[in-house]
Design brief:
The complex is a heterodimer of chains A (about 210) and B (about 400). With about 210 residues, chain A is mainly alpha-helical. Chain A has a domain of about 140 residues. Helices cover about 60% and strands about 0% of the residues of chain A. In chain A, a hairpin with a 2-residue loop joins strand 1 and strand 2. The longest helix of chain A is centred in the C-terminal third of the chain and has 31 residues. Chain A is globular. With about 400 residues, chain B is mainly α. Chain B folds into two domains: about 250 residues, no CATH class; about 120 residues, no CATH class. The longest helix of chain B has about 35 residues. The N and C termini of chain B lie far apart (about 60 Å). Classes of the chains: A mainly alpha (about 210), B mainly alpha (about 400). Chains A and B meet through loops of A and helix 6, helix 7 and helix 8 of B.
Chain lengths: ~210, ~400
């Protein structure tokens, strides 16, 4: 068995850009708006989701032949909820500040459509290794969009990146300069507009994804 | 005029296919059709109801804006010398205001038209004329102390995201000038609200303006700002009380073009006389505002609610919004009955926001943007009702 066959590579790379869970499938928008006002929580959220999707995919894929069809959603939810609780506790223990910033959104990963979508659509039909690749790919695709949105929102909304000052202090009005942070960037509407720009760029690069005019 | 025409004809070949300046074809085209009525007519199903094309209609709106603009310039200078306690001649005030406002007009037009030209050239389309009006409206609805770089960003944002992504002039859902203002309002609240931005306090570079120190007791708050913070009496920039006549004339701090009811009234007459703006929308905005203000007067639970209805109409951006923003033909409903409802709700919502939301002393901008969103729905309802009515008649 070839671990990195062409098909497996495709399973991993398509969700990163062409079939991106946020930009193409338009899933997980809610958390993309909520946690991206700073880059750090966006990054942590992206990594958490990646870990959870990957592991949940593997577990469900291992169990797939034993799960009765009628209660499969409950089984999936139990697996996801367990993983989310573990991640949430780990964050509280080792990255308390970030977990406070993320607040309920770590717990709400349970309801993230990307998770249920990947479990139902992929892990239930495929072997563990493929499911793992698919989970990591989808999670990283989600993380990629979050990081792009978080990058612009933190840069223009706070003038910092990962809490390091990027736009020099001396340019600000307070220090006698002219510059001011853009307050709209920290509000949720701007996350949607940046997301729209990302989608615009993605569609422009991939004409296949563009909707046809009837 | 003849010489201009000859010149245009002479340089025209170099802009056509294969000419030297083919890359700037859309720019040339835009200027030519702006200066002279083009000889071409619509090739497909014609929608023209009038003998003037939209470039001529837009120019008429710009002409209607000129009284408000000139008075706005004068008022900027007037307020500047007032807060410094210096006597100045009419022309000194006007020139100060002119020099303070001119850069805003230039920035708004350069940024907006620049984007329009680039997009038109890129898509290979004719340049649309919509920005002629937006570019003039934008400087009139911002405070005089709004920095130019912020204005440039907001204009670019509005032209790209409120207009070009929807397909350009005629396809925008929201009024472009108001989106510019809304962007400024939410992105840079320090420069768009509060007490410090409505009066130009510093002398301009080059030493034009007053060199006196500021008078004591200068607030610079807009009348509506004063009312919403619970002031007992509406005062002008140096703290003396204002009569209704001052409110009509417009000698108080505010956005550059919004203060004078008389100047806006002249614009309204021009627009109504030429038939470019709908009197139905205009009338119903005032009706909605007056009735709502009267309703709140009878409740009178806070300072803004007990502001007399005529002061609600005279102060702030109510008149400017009603005359120049609500009547925008692109973003208001097309159906004649729809215009009444649209206008009435704008007046209603504007006063409701003023009275019930302590965070926003002025509600006109948000009211018009909200109703812009509902204009297609209003149209849809009336068109469907009309179809149903006619079907009934036809089936009888």
């Amino acid at each position: 068995m070839d671990l990195f066959s062409k098909k497996n590579k495709e399973t991993f790379f398509t969700p990163l850009w062409v079939n991106n869970p946020v930009a193409t499938q338009v899933l997980g928008i809610c958390s993309a708006l909520a946690v991206t006002s700073k880059l750090e929580p966006a990054l942590v959220m992206g990594i958490s989701v990646t870990i959870i999707v990957a592991l949940a995919n593997v577990v469900i894929s291992l169990l797939r032949n034993t799960i009765p069809n009628r209660i499969r959603i409950i089984v999936q939810l139990v697996v996801v909820a367990t993983l989310v609780t573990i991640v949430s506790q780990v964050l509280k223990a080792f990255a308390y500040d970030v977990s406070v910033q993320l607040s309920v959104y770590v717990g709400l990963i349970i309801t993230n459509c990307i998770l249920m979508g990947r479990l139902e659509a992929f892990a239930m039909q495929n072997k563990p290794w493929e499911s793992f690749l698919d989970g990591v790919g989808s999670g990283l695709g989600y993380a990629l969009i979050l990081v792009i949105v978080g990058f612009f929102r933190e840069l223009f909304g706070s003038g910092t990146l990962l809490n390091f000052r990027v736009i020099p202090e001396c340019l600000y009005v307070k220090a006698g300069g002219f510059y001011m942070n853009n307050g709209l960037m920290v509000l949720p509407p701007m996350a949607l507009i940046i997301l729209a720009c990302v989608i615009w760029f993605q569609r422009a690069k991939n004409p296949d994804l563009q909707e046809k005019n009837n | 005029m003849k010489a201009l025409r000859n010149f245009l004809d002479k340089v025209k070949p170099s802009f056509e296919e294969g000419g030297k300046f083919h890359a700037f074809r859309s720019v040339f085209d835009g200027f030519e059709t702006f200066l002279f009525v083009p000889n071409t007519t619509a090739k497909r199903g014609s929608h023209i109801h009038d003998c003037i094309d939209s470039k001529r209609a837009m120019s008429m709106v710009v002409i209607a804006l000129i009284p408000a603009l000139l008075f706005g310039m004068y008022n900027v200078g007037f307020q500047h010398y007032l807060v410094h306690g210096e006597e100045a001649s009419f022309w000194a005030m006007f020139i100060f205001g002119f020099l303070a406002v001119l850069p805003k007009i230039v920035v708004s037009y350069v940024v907006g038209l620049g984007i329009e030209f680039v997009v038109a050239q890129w898509r290979g389309e004719e340049i649309q004329e919509g920005f002629l009006v937006s570019g003039m409206l934008i400087p009139l609805i911002v405070p005089v102390e709004c920095p130019l770089w912020i204005l440039a960003i907001a204009t670019a944002f509005a032209v790209i995201f409120a207009k070009e992504v929807f397909g350009g002039t005629g396809y925008n859902i929201f009024n472009v000038a108001l989106i510019t203002r809304a962007f400024l309002f939410f992105a840079y609240p320090v420069k768009m609200s509060g007490d410090a931005v409505w009066v130009a306090k510093d002398a301009l570079c080059g030493g034009i303006g007053s060199e006196n120190a500021l008078l004591d007791g200068v607030t610079g708050a807009t009348p509506l700002g004063q009312v919403s913070t619970g002031a007992a009496e509406i005062t002008n920039a140096i703290g003396s009380s204002m009569s209704p006549m001052d409110m009509i004339m417009g000698f108080y701090p505010g956005s550059i073009g919004e203060t004078s009811v008389i100047a806006i009234g002249i614009g309204a007459i021009i627009l109504l006389f030429t038939g470019i703006a709908s009197w139905k929308t205009m009338l119903s905005v005032f009706a909605g505002g007056i009735l709502t203000a009267m309703m709140f007067n009878s409740i009178g639970a806070n300072e803004v609610m007990s502001l007399p209805w005529y002061e609600h109409i005279l102060l702030g951006g109510f008149c400017f919004g009603a005359v120049f923003m609500a009547t925008d033909p692109v973003t208001s409903p097309r159906t004649e009955c729809g215009k009444y409802i649209y206008g009435f709700l704008i007046g209603f919502i504007a006063i409701v926001i003023r009275c019930l939301n302590p965070g926003y002393p002025e509600g006109m901008m948000l009211a018009i943007l909200l109703m812009n969103l509902f204009a297609p729905l209003i149209d849809h309802c009336f068109v469907q009702a009309n179809i149903k009515r006619r079907l009934k008649r036809a089936n009888r």
